[in-house]
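Posting for a labmate who doesn't have an account.
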Amino acid sequence: MSLTRSYARALLEAAQEMNLKSNDLDQIQNELNLFVTTMNSHAELSESLSSPVVPADKKAEISQELTQRLGFSKLASNFIALVAKKNRVSFFQEMADAFLEARLQAEGAMMGSVVSADPLQKTDLEELATSFTKKFGKKIVFKAAVDPSLLAGLKVTVNGVTYDGSLRSQLHQLRDRLVYGKSPAFH
């Protein structure tokens, strides 16, 4: 198990021991994401929490002060302070992602990713999730990303399988048919 998954699993287990409900877990997830956003938008804060020169206790103190100002839950605040104290802030985005994945797995759901040429609307993402939920018989939650090189369409990955409906992929298939004949699999 990777470092980020270990931290995420520990946070989820602590939340489960506290008998936190789904809404509370949503709040913790939102707080983790807000912390990542705050770190990314404040270089000085990021440097302070990542610097080997700043003592571990000071990092924990800085993170506690920040999370208190932002009104974070005690569990999220303590978790972030622990991560800062252990000099693991550079892995925090991965920890937040791993927490969501562990939570979904515990709830019997799966994580998927969708890459599009342009940002997707929330309703489009929800429709896609509904379609894949029906296909797999499990709730699917998508993490969205943008890649303009796709030109148009989507590239969806669920459970290790990629469904490539991008224009770039279609153009490559067309090129292969023109160059290699009807069946590009035999070139």
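Reply:
Got it, the structure tokens are right above this. The chain has two domains: 3-104, 109-186.
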